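One chain given next:
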Amino acid sequence: IRRPPRSTQSRSSAASDVYKRQYLYPFIALVSFIFTDIPNTYAKAVSNLILINAKIYTVNDQQPWAEALVISDGDIIFVGNNHDALNYKNSRSQIKDLQGKMLLPGFHDIHVHPVHGGVTYLQCNLSGIKGLENLLIKIQSCADNNPDSDWVLGGGWAIDNFAANTLPDKALLDQIITNKPIALKSSDGHSLWVNSKALKISKISAKTKDPVNGKIERYNQSSEPSGLLHEDNAMMLVMQHQPQLSEKELIDGLRYARNLFHSYGITGVQDAILKLEPGDPYYGLNAYKYLEANNELNLHVITAMFWKNGQPLEPQLKNFIDVKNQQKDSELIHISAIKIWQDGVIETYTAAMIEPYSDREDNFRGELQNTPNDLNDAVIALDAEGFQIHFHAIGDRAINVAFNSLENARYINGIRDSRHHISHIQVFQEKDINRFVELDVVANFQPLWAIRDEYITEHTYSKIGNQRSQWLYPIGSVHRTGAKIGFGSDWYVTSVNPLDGIEAAVTRLEPNGLTNIPLGKNEEINLATAIKAYTINGAFVNFLDHKVGSIEIGKQADLIVLDNNLFDLPTSQINETKVLATLFNGLLVYGKL
């Protein structure tokens, strides 16, 4: 049994952190407290930023609240009251009075697409557009404003812009432009909407068979492609012909994402898909390395390398090991996870269900992207090599086989500190809810999806029926089992703002007031639990909880300042709170203090 590192730090670095946290910083604080009238050489040597008069919610059960802290060389060296904090004052100190504003640890988004999302926002960005007419106007504008581009590329369109059981059609895009290919990815990332020119360039016709684990939509009673492709293997039939993204485009996309993340207080992420082929929209490793080398990254990044469904195990495993060994972990970038896409989404019948879809007469249940046997082999091998597994699983069958594969890996390889997690987890068998605790798996929810919006009312309820719909995103039920819950946004699919996700988790309502009936019964969680899911639990998933995720002596000063205390607000106003400042490693990276 191979035992992987229990942390992303070296042993000596981790030991140093423990020493500073347990011995050095408390000793300095004690000396400062005792000798308040004597110049404290230790305090002078380390103190440089003192924050006072704050509402500090530490996410540390041993000291939940404080009013002041001291930062030195990027580390927190004191957490407590104003009087004691000011004992660290010296000629080099900066003192900032936060005047009662709230201070939290930096947020961690454990399922997000920084490079791909940023690139998409800089292309033809269709995110947030409501109504088919408005969607087509935007696409027309993208084509008109980029006459020299070879393709019209972008994404973010939502399925709820189309009537129930109606899918995007190439004819709508052909009305915009016929002499240039258009390829637009859906907001959920599982479908690609293209025009006739893109199909022609890609040689997709009535004679083209559906690829394994992919689907080409066709007109009723016909084999002619209608202009919509589902899942990666089908989408790549077109995407492989698109112009390769340049290094500049990838770097610019990541810069856009980083700036957006900082504006919402995000200081740590898990990139949920890192493909290893340069030019692919999900390729981002060089962009991360470039920003880090130029001291611009200012994010903790865990990358989840993309498992290619249907491809042989051994060459993929060797490639992952080679990449991990050759690239090496850096201070901010850790190549330690594998993303396995186990099914699709309910809205397009690609989620893998145990029982048939309710509105079809062909007993169709969706399809697993990996057979149970293939998945078992892959997960056992990846776990044995110390990789963390990051699953995409939407349907109850996909969730079930993901759990089974992790259970088998534990049996074969032994129990280790793996921190595997399953993301999305939309619809459950009730019996599987306890397995997060039983198998020590983290439940990686996207809380902003747990609302009764048109996705649910128009495109989900009818497809899976009332009984299964009782178990949509059961965050409260999973939490009550004692399972560890972490949150992500899946941006650009939906808003990356953690305060949107926190409000939705607490209310089960759309945070901007667009719904008034909570999704499910008793699936809400309290505010403290929701904050924990976006801070210390996210840091845990990323093997960083020893370093960040809470406000404690010895931890890195990744902090955010909010204009209101979330605990003093009605739950309906949580997402109206603004991030005033974000600090990473003690340095201001957004806003002002």
Notes: Residues 32 and 41 are 9 Å apart (CA to CA). Residues 11-34 form the longest helix (24 residues). The radius of gyration is 25 Å. Residues 1-15, 28-46 have pLDDT under 50 and may be disordered.
